[in-house]
Design goal:
The protein is an all-alpha fold. It is built from six helices and no strands. The longest helix is centred in the last third of the chain and has 31 residues.
């Protein structure tokens, strides 16, 4: 396999898994939503499972020290809504790249990445609905901020 293709694949796998982890932890610790946390966790684990056969090669091809992406400045996040939107976009875009490049590196996995990407689209809708409800509760009850009246689901 070409090293540039392996690095591209590795970077997008990391990007997808990191974004899923941010969303998973937001669902778990901010929204206290098991209904969102578990599917996000499962999606992150699914991405790892799909790529487990080439993971050693991905790590060996990694060159984080010279990656020009290290110096790209990320935009700031003004609130949990912008943070959530940014991470869902990050995950979806990375999964699309993984879907396309898996046709070269893991030909039988393209369909799995596509399925995972569409599952994330559905999770985004559910997450945004839950986040909107959280925002309404937060505005109506200042104690939500302190964690004393968080809804469990």
């Amino acid at each position: 396999m070409r090293s540039d293709t392996v690095r591209l694949f590795d970077a997008n796998l990391n990007r997808a898994r990191e974004g899923l982890r941010v969303l998973e932890d937001t669902a778990r610790f901010v929204l206290c939503s098991k209904k969102l946390c578990l599917p996000l966790r499962n999606a992150r684990h699914q991405a790892a499972f799909i790529t487990q056969s080439i993971y050693p090669e991905l790590v060996c091809g990694r060159d984080a020290q010279t990656d020009m992406g290290r110096k790209i400045k990320e935009s700031s996040r003004k609130d949990i809504f912008s943070l959530t939107a940014a991470n869902f976009r990050r995950v979806q875009e990375a999964l699309r790249v993984l879907e396309e490049y898996s046709k070269i590196l893991l030909p039988n996995s393209a369909r799995e990445f596509k399925s995972l990407r569409f599952a994330v689209y559905t999770l985004e809708k559910r997450f945004i609905n839950e986040l909107n409800e959280f925002g309404k509760r937060e505005k109506n009850d200042a104690s939500v901020v302190t964690g004393s009246k968080r809804r469990k689901n």
